[in-house]
Specification:
Number of domains: 2
CATH topology of the largest domain: Alpha-Beta Plaits
Shape: elongated
Structural class: alpha+beta
Distance between the termini: 18 Å
Helix content: 25-40%
Number of strands: 4
Oligomer: single chain
Radius of gyration: 20 Å
């Protein structure tokens, strides 16, 4: 998909503000970017209409929900496995947060969140039993930093 050519620095600043707090009001954002409230709303509405902003989400502290262990599993599939099957495998396991199909070896990177190591072992066992999986390698997350834009 081609980038939207008329996204400028003000739009990028609005996007950053919304990434920091998706519930931020137009009245809060307007003085931070040097626009009126109405102009700020028009810009955010336009960013939504053209598909730059696709939705608003909540950030969750998974540890407080009892899912304090995060890992990535490299998953290898039999050579003829369709991509749709790879994605479906992950979607059938509730502890799977995301499935990234990738080029090369491995075929997929599966992000999981679990209670503890025993729970992680159970999830890996379920992934391994799913269809055409021929191998896994698990990487434990020790910490994280995520770019906001």
């Amino acid at each position: 998909m081609a980038p939207i050519p008329d996204v400028d620095d003000l739009d990028r600043r609005l996007i950053t503000l919304l990434q920091e707090d998706g519930r931020r009001t137009f009245a809060d954002m307007a003085p931070r970017v040097g626009l009126s409230v109405a102009a700020t709303k028009r810009r955010v509405d336009r960013l939504r209409e053209v598909g730059v902003i696709t939705g608003f989400t909540v950030q969750i502290d998974h540890a407080r929900l009892g899912l304090g262990v995060e890992a990535f599993c490299e998953v290898r599939y039999a050579g003829t496995t369709p991509v749709e099957t790879i994605v479906h495998t992950g979607s059938t396991v509730p502890e799977v947060h995301a499935v990234y199909t990738i080029a090369g070896d491995p075929d997929a990177l599966v992000q999981v969140r679990v209670r503890d190591i025993a729970h992680l072992q159970d999830v890996i066992d379920r992934l391994r039993r799913a269809g055409a999986v021929v191998g896994t390698k698990t990487l434990m997350v020790l910490g994280r930093w995520v770019r906001s834009s």
